[in-house]
Amino acid sequence: RILVTGSLGQLGIGLVSLLRQKYGNENVIASDIRKPSPEIKAQGPYVFADVLNMQQLETIVVDNDINWIVNLSALLSAVGEQNIDKALAINMTGFTNTLELARRHQLRIMCPSTIGAFGPTTPRDLTPDLTIMRPTTVYGITKVHVELMGEYYAKRFGVDFRSLRYPGIISSDTEPGGGTTDYAVQIFHSALKEKSYKCYLGPETSLPMMYLPDCLEGTVDFLAAPNHLLKQRTYNMAAFSFNPREIAAKIKERIPEFEMTYAPDFRQAIADSWPKSLDDSKARQDWGWKNKFDLDAMTDDMLTALKSHHK
Ligand code: VAH
Q: Which residues form the NAD-dependent epimerase/dehydratase domain (predicted)?
């Protein structure tokens, strides 16, 4: 059975439903610290879980015969800078609790990392899996801790720890969770509602991105990959890169009256410390990662999906 924490977030909702399609509703326990909507609750088993409560987590793991845990609970880059103590608690202590449970109960554990685990001294073009990691956000620092502690437990205790460095994730049916890449989702909603968008990043700020369906399919493939295929515990994963000027042009091709303006804020410095593009060739070689959506296909799919919501 699989336990997913942070299951009500941008990735969690879709990941839980994809895992349930693959493994059966009853075999995927969704959990979060927030209250699910009646629709979500109706889809399958849901438990309230606070990753800071080790005893409660251990009871859930034992009572539900959990053997995989996917820990999506985290404060992302922008919100983490505004709530340092909560980001440290959830992203470090919360993760450490799930990692220790994985050791005690021989669980496979997946906890995402991020392009935010890289920093301004990291080579920024086609950033490889193994390179300098000196992030300058609390979020990035906590995710380097996830990677290093996960790899320590894998080496020392044989824990099946896995991690993917996600790029910005673009989704039509879920809200992003307070990151620096959230503009790439907001721009679509704003384009349809106001035919305009005021972007908090400058026009040339290129970042690695991925469409949510690709992220979820890739994550499920990675979770299910036989351990012997994984030559490393943590992999870069991306699909394409773009900057605000490029995505605005793609939207303008489809909505000619769309107007983009720029008002960079504190998130500009965060974005400037991150890679512009990732080398994720090891993920493609070792366990078959491939993205199906390119920038044009994602743009079309987002606008189609949102047009049905915004009616
Ligand atoms: C953030 N969307 O912006 C998250 C993600 C790579 C970005 O970690 O913080």
A: 2-238
Coil vs helix vs strand at 173: coil
This prediction's pTM: 0.96
CA-closest candidate to residue 73, choices 32, 113, 114? 32
Identify the bridge partners of residue 69 per DSSP, sorted by sequence position. Answer: 3, 109
**Residue 114 alpha carbon, nearest atom of ligand 1:** 8
Query: Which residue(s) pair with 87 in the sheet?
Result: none
Q: Which residue has the tokens 């979770």?
A: 223
- Each residue's pLDDT tens digit, 29-38: 999 999 999 9
| Reported ipTM | 0.94
- Give catalytic residue positions: 139
Closest CA to 94 of 112, 73, 111: 73
Q: Assess whether the C-beta atom of 77 lies below 6 angstroms from ligand 1.
A: yes
Asked if 257 contacts 196 with a C-beta cutoff of 8 angstroms, the reply is no
Stretch (H or E) spanning 110: strand 108-110
Asked whether 167 and 181 are in contact (CB, 8 A), the reply is: yes
